[in-house]
Amino acid sequence: MESVEFERPGTVEEAVALLQGASGNAKILAGGTDLLVQLRAHMVEPDVIIDIKHIEETRTLTKNSDGSYTIGAAVAGAEAGDRDDITKDWPGVVEGWELIGSTQIQGRASLGGNLCNASPAGDSVPAMVAAGMTVNIAGPNGRRTIPVEEVTVAPGRTCLEKGEFVVSFNLPARPAGGGDAYLRLIPRTEMDIAVVGCGVALTLDTDGVVKTAKVSLGAVAATVLVVEDAAKAIIGTKLDADAMAALDAACQAACKPIDDKRGTIEYRTKIAGVLGRRAVTIAAERAGKK
Amino acid sequence: MAKHHISATLNGEPVEFLCSTRQTLLDVLRDELNLTGSKEGCASGDCGACSVMVDDRLVCSCLVLGAECDNKKIDSIEGMADGEKLHPLQTKFLEEAALQCGICTPGVLVAAKALLERNNNPTETEVRYWLAGNLCRCTGYDKIIRAVMSTAADMRENAK
Fold this sequence. Notes:
The complex is a heterodimer of chains A (290) and B (160).
Chain A: E1 5-7, H1 12-21, E2 26-29, H2 35-40, E3 48-51, E4 61-63, E5 69-72, H3 77-81, H4 84-89, H5 91-97, H6 103-106, H7 111-116, H8 125-130, E6 134-139, E7 142-147, E8 152-154, E9 157-158, E10 165-171, E11 178-185, E12 196-204, E13 210-218, E14 225-226, H9 228-234, H10 241-254, H11 265-286
Parallel strand pairs in A: 1-3, 2-3
Antiparallel strand pairs in A: 4-5, 5-10, 6-7, 6-10, 8-9, 11-12, 12-13, 13-14
Helix pairs in contact in A: 9-10, 10-11
Chain B: E1 4-10, E2 13-19, H1 25-32, E3 51-54, E4 57-60, E5 73-75, H2 88-95, H3 105-118, H4 124-130, H5 141-158
Parallel strand pairs in B: 1-5
Antiparallel strand pairs in B: 1-2, 3-4, 3-5
């Protein structure tokens, strides 16, 4: 068996230098819940594994003075779930994150890993997209910040260049009249891969009219989708039956799913509309809708 | 390449071991430290038979590299009893026969202990969700859940 180097950089710069200097294949280790499975199955054969958890920035979840959050790429879901502040401000983001696997997986699985594994069905991604989260990427040319939805370009592939890795995420302050939600459908009650996932973040004015909305669907296309027509269908409405029907239709129209053992194309498409309606309803309740 | 020299705390005692990069914490516990209580069921994080605590978080030791464990606090099933004195969960599992073949039991016990330390009054639903990552191939779930609920009730009573 080939030997694999193991590195524990203490700074972002050291990690970038290691990634850049790697002759062949370098893999970032955060929670390891995908990487170790891939290693064992010989789906990946890295020359070096770079454990980023000794970089302070990747391991801290901070609420900033303006109410926004900076979330380290290697913070585990269970660590976020134990925090009252983010759970109260962005319940949908935490819900998505906390749906990844079992309690044991929750103790390790990170947002950075769930995003960079680039599965179309990653549970944390739609809610992050809906919430308007951005990603701080470090690389040989310094830092850049991009929206979460731009990271995955195809199943299993990200836009990260050689030498780059995700250091942390930015989550905006919860806006006035804001609410968010994430729902997914799985064939079991726990521990399965999403057939459809839907993240919604919206704001209501004092009369209960939707001011802003962002709707995101997972597991119904090659990458997580932003469904602009679904947001348009409800903005300016009080979420009456016509608006909800238009939202449902827009979610269904956006789907380009696959058939597999968890669900057919028809099923996934129909469910996308159902989850869209339900997630909007929950987000609106959290935003204070009477 | 040279093996990694790791110093950690295992069940309250300092421990040192050598491991290669590919060796998981489970491999280290079983093959290097001869602690065979943690089991390998699936080796992919689905079954929970290898559950241990690392820095007071419940994890699958098959999904942790040994090399990651420098300066970590690790607690395995071997540290659950206090010498000859069993943990209340262990006693209850014996009394209520909450095991069949026993392969999943160490992982179930470690996971259940972690739950009761956070919440000594869980609902049945909470217990079932918390233990969703511990598979029992004998499908003996009902007795497991009842034993955990019953231990929690005893622990609340004793705390009065």
